[in-house]
Amino acid sequence: MHGYSGDKQAYLTRLRRIEGQIRGLQRMVDEEAYCIDILTQVSAATRALQAVALGLLEDHIAHCVADAVKSGGPEADEKVKEASAAIARLVRS
Amino acid sequence: MHGYSGDKQAYLTRLRRIEGQIRGLQRMVDEEAYCIDILTQVSAATRALQAVALGLLEDHIAHCVADAVKSGGPEADEKVKEASAAIARLVRS
Amino acid sequence: MHGYSGDKQAYLTRLRRIEGQIRGLQRMVDEEAYCIDILTQVSAATRALQAVALGLLEDHIAHCVADAVKSGGPEADEKVKEASAAIARLVRS
Amino acid sequence: MHGYSGDKQAYLTRLRRIEGQIRGLQRMVDEEAYCIDILTQVSAATRALQAVALGLLEDHIAHCVADAVKSGGPEADEKVKEASAAIARLVRS
């Protein structure tokens, strides 16, 4: 069980929509759409992916990190460090 | 003809790989993989999308914007503004 | 007392260095330095600011959010939501 | 003469305002303000820096890159590559 398990179907639906956006991008490149229109769609897909990441992260802090903090011990510190590293990767990507 | 037309196959290959990454994410969510591992893959897909965008943008400046600049007139200003707006969307997404 | 209180001096030192970077940018603009060199310095200052934010966020989760989680109740949910909103602002800025 | 020279005073004013934001951040840390409030101000300063960068970049493309493109030759390619590398640094920072 993970933080996002309760929303699994919602995350799958969002990821399928993003898959559709990526296939739409392939169609645009294949039909030689205007570069700027392709870039607009790339920005939209990037933002959709980031929204999924932010949702997963909130669920993760609310469940996995919170559970580790309640149990205490070195596991708690580890989970905070691990979540912080994931946040850093997101901010820098 | 657009800036990226010569590299069309390379862009399609990259976008198909990103589509595979998104399907991999769906599998991970479906099999209830660990949240942090999913986030790492989301960051990788985001960076891959950004790399596609940066490539398209360079091709666009080198061809469409450059051609408009050589022709001169209001079209040149317009193309620079349009490219700048696309850059801003990328930086902010 | 906040999560970062123990590292207050270190954060002040980093912020003073960033202030120096911003003054350096003013000097570059004033002396009409090459645009690309200015942009390189802007990227460096932006990354330094983000590193400060990521440090503050890790301290915040390790202390304020963790304390709220241990106390339980609606305050815990609130702190997680508040931290998630701050992460979203960082990722999107 | 650079692309931004005509707007030099406006850029200096914006950078001085950002310097003020960074000094405000030092005051907040010194007075032990709430972490989330500091993070909100860091996001605002980051966005202000990015806006300066986007402005400089548009001026740079409209002038330095455009002039090189009109002159033609290897310098034109070089300027496009250099601008693209600066855009990539911005997108990734």
TrEMBL record, chains A, B, C, D:
Entry GO terms, CC: cytoplasm; protein-DNA complex
Record's subcellular location: Cytoplasm
InterPro entries reported in the protein's UniProt record: Metal_Tscrpt_repr, Metal_Tscrpt_repr_sf
Keyword terms: Copper, Cytoplasm, DNA-binding, Metal-binding, Repressor, Transcription, Transcription regulation
Any Pfam family hit: Trns_repr_metal
Signal peptide (from-to): none
GO molecular function, one term: metal ion binding
Chief localization: cytoplasm
Membership in a protein family: Belongs to the CsoR family.
Protein name per Swiss-Prot or TrEMBL: Metal-sensing transcriptional repressor
Gene source species: Microbispora catharanthi
